[in-house]
Design the sequence.
């Protein structure tokens, strides 16, 4: 990876690879399972020693949570890049910060 992976790319990639609207509940159950696995990895402090040895680590489980969240967004035809912008506007008014969300990054 070149460090320029976009949310839009991830959505398209996951949609091509894994898009089964009839399995919506299964995607949610899988997301819940992955959150539990992330919790366990965090509790045990299981950080990957490098990018090749990630099995069962926080690193792996964070990706699994992101993957299933994106898969669910795809099933609802949610454009995450647009929703991120909208949600950041809401957050900016609720939780002012000196850090600015930059679009098209």
Sequence:
């Amino acid at each position: 990876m070149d460090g320029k992976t976009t949310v839009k790319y991830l959505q398209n990639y996951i949609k091509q690879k894994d898009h089964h609207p009839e399995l919506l509940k299964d995607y949610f159950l899988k997301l819940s399972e992955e959150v539990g696995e992330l919790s366990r990895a965090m509790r045990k402090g299981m950080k990957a020693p490098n990018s090749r040895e990630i099995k069962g680590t926080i690193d792996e489980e964070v990706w699994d949570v992101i993957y299933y969240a994106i898969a669910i967004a795809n099933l609802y035809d949610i454009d995450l890049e647009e929703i991120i912008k909208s949600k950041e506007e809401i957050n900016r008014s609720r939780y002012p910060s000196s850090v600015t969300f930059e679009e098209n990054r």
Remarks:
- The radius of gyration is 16 Å.
- Helices lie at 7-17, 24-43, 58-75, 80-94.
